[in-house]
Each structure stands twice: as structure tokens, then as C-alpha cells.
Automatic annotation (TrEMBL), chains A, B:
Keywords: Aminoacyl-tRNA synthetase, ATP-binding, Cytoplasm, Ligase, Nucleotide-binding, Protein biosynthesis. The keyword Hydrolase does not apply. HAMAP family: Pro_tRNA_synth_type3. Catalyzes the attachment of proline to tRNA(Pro) in a two-step reaction: proline is first activated by ATP to form Pro-AMP and then transferred to the acceptor end of tRNA(Pro). It is found in: Cytoplasm. It comes from Parasporobacterium paucivorans DSM 15970. This is Proline--tRNA ligase. GO terms for cellular component: aminoacyl-tRNA synthetase multienzyme complex; cytoplasm.
Amino acid sequence: MAQAKKLVEAITPMEEDFSRWYTDVVKKAELIEYSSVKGCMILRPNGYAIWENVQKELDRMFKETGVENVYMPMFIPESLLQKEKDHVEGFAPEVAWVTQGGLEPLAERLCVRPTSETLFCDFYSNIIQSYRDLPKLYNQWCSVVRWEKTTRPFLRSTEFLWQEGHTAHATAEDAEERTIQMLDIYAEFCEKFLAIPMVKGKKTDKEKFAGAESTYTIEALMHDGKALQSGTSHNFGDGFAKAFDIQYTDKENKLQYVHQTSWGLSTRIIGAIIMVHGDDSGLVLPPMIAPVQVMVVPIAQHKEGVLEAAAKIKAGLAGVRVALDDSDKSPGWKFSEQEIRGIPLRIEIGPKDMEAGQAVIVRRDTREKITVSLDSIAAKTLEVMETMQNEMLERARKHRDEHTFSAVTYEEFKDTIANRPGFVKAMWCGEETCELKIKEDTTATSRCMPFEEENISDTCVCCGKPAKTMVYWGKAY
Amino acid sequence: MAQAKKLVEAITPMEEDFSRWYTDVVKKAELIEYSSVKGCMILRPNGYAIWENVQKELDRMFKETGVENVYMPMFIPESLLQKEKDHVEGFAPEVAWVTQGGLEPLAERLCVRPTSETLFCDFYSNIIQSYRDLPKLYNQWCSVVRWEKTTRPFLRSTEFLWQEGHTAHATAEDAEERTIQMLDIYAEFCEKFLAIPMVKGKKTDKEKFAGAESTYTIEALMHDGKALQSGTSHNFGDGFAKAFDIQYTDKENKLQYVHQTSWGLSTRIIGAIIMVHGDDSGLVLPPMIAPVQVMVVPIAQHKEGVLEAAAKIKAGLAGVRVALDDSDKSPGWKFSEQEIRGIPLRIEIGPKDMEAGQAVIVRRDTREKITVSLDSIAAKTLEVMETMQNEMLERARKHRDEHTFSAVTYEEFKDTIANRPGFVKAMWCGEETCELKIKEDTTATSRCMPFEEENISDTCVCCGKPAKTMVYWGKAY
Ligand SMILES: [Zn+2]
Ligand SMILES: [Zn+2]
């Protein structure tokens, strides 16, 4: 137990220092290891396996809507990146440049993709001719690079993994519909699999993607009351199509520009899982996304029959991602490891349990202990996992709602941002000057103009002029 | 039919120009599109879906042996690449260099990974302390970059997709065992899923991987008689461990160097599928790897009930990757498309078939037409796919064996290489001078020293000195 205690003590309590708590969990759960490459992280098996599960479910949801996967080059010639003015202005300051290939300097430098709109546009201009070629619904899973000054595991790193979908449509309506459809898929995925409730909304012009006509976002609230942008979906209109000359002949044989979208979700989402569900003992993974859902831990495993009984439990859990810790560590040490790694359920079985024909299921989130007879353990395990998944979502929703405030006056607004971590709902006139002032005064930014609008007052919380819309504001990662 | 004919005519016949046939198939089957980035290709949905199936099966086979997936940075600092002498000499001439990040020049340049041994070694030196930490069995799926002067779709491109496994073991025996185990997995995968028989063997010192103690390979024979190295597995001994100081304390509390392996298989394997199985009508995919296994094509689909009958066939093929071509193209056009894309089976159904309560299954490889009653179509489809898969493997094996020759004298050897495309088995003294002479005289290279040795003669085919081993020689991609 001394050793077990040491493992746990290594995690800084959340209340003491949330930021250190976060990096402790990331390290101790062996999700990430820092590399010798500045700003780049190594995704270790425990971390990568979460991403594999995210990929598996999202990929299936994408394909159900007709999306197909492709792979585009990781390099973008400088001239290609420059074709869309807003886009290059947004990304050029933060890209990595390849200037030498083999033993020779390159005639034109190549950037390592920060995102692939320009490559997809170049591709689409070659393969789209007729309305029969539309829509194109392509996606890729890859890594992208953005040269960041300060980095944090999962939240901000020079290289990160993501998927980027890029679609081309015949009409503006089709593009807008696809933009919203993919945002809905992200929100549904996060709620169902990650137990994270999302606020869906539209970004202000200031916060939208470089080159987009409009950007939609899903925003989550972390345990410390800060917001995390968790996925975005952009409608490009025909701006990129005009810059890259992507035209098709319609049914009346007239040339038309396509309308495009893109949408992305990255390993950042793993940061959200950690900061929404984690506690002072480590990670807490929602059962539906956990690489290992159940860890069977034998107690007094040197006693006759214990290991066999534990193995039998494991074998009986068909369809469950289950592992058995039969190492020579102490049970206390094994408990700590299972807790740090966030494995949703632990099943303990020892000589006394065997005598009574039972085992003990322990929930990671509530630590509730449930004694179960051995012949009903498979059904009970599934039931407890389902309950845990649902309760984790409800707990996160309750936390989010309890940390969502409204403000009518600017004094109220500043006071709330300063003293009550969370979202602040407040009205806005639509002017960037107010967004800038709010950011300067409070460090909070506009998170989104939510789909579910409310009329909190008639005037902008900042300038007092007539309000155009309600905005979710907050400090953000 | 005029249009259908046009589609087919676009493929250059194999006998006329194998190389043009290959690129025609790649383009017409829509596997790849050239990009604006020199030497980089776009993997289109039809091509990427094959890779997804390769990934799915191989990844499962890896994990069954205890392998875990990780993700390492795509950049390698120059100083890290230089730590192992042979390795940097092998790769430095063909890497891409990043010299600028954001708006500033980098203090140390970074290469885009051509392979990740150095990164894994750096990682292992941080996380391996004790014999309890061994073995480490890590793999990653990613893209790598090698600056190539001449490129060909799938076979050689500046960027390509692959998996690279990197393992660390306590003993030399464990490392050697893992090296062979992974080679066996590659060979088994290629035979079972891709219907491609492999020659397994060891590379000569000249042909081995930069920094390896020994390299093992699987070699396939393409339809034109050229060899294709299809996957490699390397035993590094403790060379990298010494260069990167990867040590562990053993059970006797003594410091020991680890022994390492690496093994990789890339999108190059798609080139092998094309060149082993394809014909003058296009691609021919083995059913087990085909993204779409069956295309249902309605005949006279405007006639009452035809589309419904076709849809019913599709719905009845549970567990089969099946699509229905209900577009307004002619049946001939649809046939051509299905053939070019290499979809293993076509099921035709028209008014006459419906009257007779039957449909027609057409095999892509043999074009055999099989009339089947509608109530047995699901079972028959599975049966025909299995037969086709087996016969494709046997046909490829027969072709390989019929194009594998022996040579005892150098005249015989040169004559065979010049006039009979295929493998040539011949004895070798073990000296690199003979390998170099053979390459200069014939352009053939040593493919491998096969696990299944034969004693063809007692003297080296080139210099006449005593022979040490038999070698498979051949011209290669
Ligand atoms: Zn205002
Ligand atoms: Zn010789």
C-alpha cells in the first residue's frame, strides 16, 4: 500500500493547481510523453487507444452519411497556399517550411499542411466537371502542423492528429445543410460516446476560420469553468471555388461555382475528456470510449483458485473490453493504476467472495461498490457501465448548467467573469470593438452565438447599443 | 456500348507496354490522382479503401501478438538522426528538411521522418528502466517522406503511407524471434488476404536496412516477371541501443542493452495487388481485400420490378460488401466500370432472369457466368468468392513458379535474366563484388537468401568460387 500511495500522491489535487493536475494526469495515466522535438508529443498506447476509439465511431458516423476517405499530400507549395487571400493570412504565420529536399534546395518552398483546404480545392478543380460529379464528400485522417509558441498536451501542440472533411456541393443550400449536419454529428458523438454535453452555435466573424463564410462550433465546459472549442464546421460559400476555379456544368449546361464546407475534430477532444471527467485520483473514462472498460483484480491471488476464478470472470464478459491484472503487484497498487488510467469498472474477486459465490464491481466515477453473484456478473457489468455512462453525462451537464450565468450590465458581466468560472450568457451588438474590449477587460472571448437563443436584454452588455444576438462568453483553452 | 467501349480502350494492353498499362489502371480505376506537389500522390476513395482494409486486417494480426499502437512526431532533429552512423548515412541524402517554423528560422533543422527508428530509440531510452518494462511492442500507422527523383504510383513516391513497428527486447533471441514472427505475419497476410504468394528470405548485407544487423524480406513476382519487395523486418541487435543508450537492469540487477527490431509494410503493396492480379480490362481485386465485393447491376432497369429485384438481392447479401449500380448509365458502361475497378463479382438481374427466378453471377477474374436461383444466391455468392480467392492465389503461385528459373553458369544466368522474366535461383559466394558485377552486367539484384535453401551447385554463379548460399535474383521495382 505504500507503493500505491506513492502513485496517487504524484497527482497534484485539482483545487490546488488545475493546470498541474492536468499535466500530472496526462503523464501518470501514460497518455503522452514529451519528445525531443519542440512542441511535439508522443501519443503512448493508453492515449492512442482512446483516439482509435474516437476514430472508429466517428468514421462510422461519417460513412453513414456518404462520406469517403482519401489521403492528400502533407506538403503544400507556397503558391497554392497563397491562392485564397484570407486563408493564407490566417495560416502563413504559423506554418513550418520545407526548403530542402534530399541534397538540394527547393525551387519553391513547401509548407507542412496546417489544414488542407488548398489541396482539396486543387484536387476538386481537376475532378469536378459536371453536376453528376457532385456532391464530393471526402475526409482524411492525418496529422497537421501549426508552429505554436506555447504548447500543452492534447490542447495545443505543434503537430496534432485530426480528421478534416472537405465537401463540394452544387448549391449554397446543400453546403449549409452539410455544415450543420456535421456539427450535429460531432455534438451527438460527444454526448453519446464521451458523455460531454455541447453548446452548439455559430462563431462571430472575428473568431471564424480563415477563409470561411461562417464557422459553427461545439463548445464544452471544463471542470475548472474554462471553455474548450471541441470541433468546428465551416461553410466556405463559393469563395474558395472562385479562388481555385472549381466550376461544374449544371443541368442547363451552364457553368456554376461549387459551394464548399470543411469540418474537423482533433486529439484536443482527449483533453476535454480529461478535464470534464477526471478527478484527483486520475483519469475517468466514459465506458463507451474506454480502451479497457473493465479491469479484473484478483485479491490474494496466491490462494488456490483465485486466479482461475478471475480468469473465468474475464472470459465470461463477452463483448466487453476486459483485462485481467494478474501481475505480482499488490491489490492496492493495481487499484491505483486502474484508477489513474480511468478504467471505468474494477471487478474484485478474492477467497471470501468465492466462498459466497460473488464478486465486487467498483465504479471508477462514484467508487460505489456493488456486490454481484457470479452468475449474473456479465449482465450486471453491462448494466453498471450503461448507468455510469448516463450519469457521467448528466453530471457533466449539471456542472455545465450550474456554471452558466447571465449578465445584463457590464459590471455584472465583469464581476461574473472574474469570480465565477463558467460560461456567461450576454447580449451583443454585433460589433468587433465590443468583442475586443471584453477580451481586453476580462480575457474572456465570444465562444459562440448559440442555436438556442434567449433574449436576456435588449442592449449590448458592453456598449449598451441595441443587441443583435446572445453570445456565450468565457475564458477558453 | 460506345461509351463503355471507350472506357475500356483507354487502358493500354499489358503486352504492348506493361508500364503504361499499370499507370492506366491506376488512373482509370480512380485509385490515385497526381497532385500539384512533386512526387506526391492523392489516394482517392477507391485506393484509400483498399489501404483501410489492409490496415484493418494487419492491425488485428499485430494486436493478437501483443503489439500496441502509438503516434510519434513527424519531425526528427538533425542531431537525433545523426546518432546512429550507418542509419544517417543511409537516409540523410533522401530526406526533406524543415528550416523555418512560423516566421523564424530554426536553430536546428528538422527532417520529415523517412522512418522513425531514431525517435523510437529516444523514446525507449526514457521509458525503459527494468526488465519488467520489456518487451516494448509498439507500432504506428503514418506517412513518411523520402525525396525521390523518379516516382511511380504506389511503388515509389515522395510521401507514402505505411506502418512501422519498433520493438525492444531483453535478449538477442527474443529480438530475432520477433523479427521472424512479423515477417511470417506479413507473408501470411499477403497469401490469405491479397492472394499473393511470397518468397521469404534474408537480404544480403548490401541490401539490408541502414543500421540493421539483418533484414528479412518478402518478395513477390509481378505479372511482367519483375520482383517487388513487399515488406521487410529488421533485427537491429543492440547497435541502436548502444548509440542511444537504451539500457535496463536485469533480474540480477545488472545493466544490459536492449535488442531491437523494426518492420514495415506500405501502400506499395497496392502496387503488388495491381501487378499480380490485374488484366487488360483493369484491376482485379481478391474478394477478401476488395472494398466492394459484389456489384449488383440491373438489366433493363426501367422495366417493372427490376430495380426492386436488384435491391432485394443486395439486401439479402448479409455480411457481404455489396453495392447496387442503379445509375442511369447503360449496363455495358456499368460492366466496364465494375471491371476496371476490379470488383470481384457482378450480379446481373433482368426481366428474363426474374421470370426464371434466377440471376447471373459473373466472376471478374475468369469472367465465368454462373446462373443461380434467387433463393440460393447468398450462399452461392459466398461460395464463388471463396473459390475465386483460392484460385487467384493458385494462379499467382503457378505464374511465380513458372517464372522461377535456375542457373549454374554465368552464361546461363545472364541469358535467363535477359530473356526469361522472373526469378533466377543461383548460388553465391557471399562477396559483394559478385553482387555488384551481376547488377552491372544484368541490372538484376539479389532479392533474398530464401529460408528454403536448395543446393543448385557448389560454386558461385558469378566468380566460380565456393558457394555459401542460394540467392533469388531478379530485376525489381
Ligand atoms: Zn456592443
Ligand atoms: Zn562470387
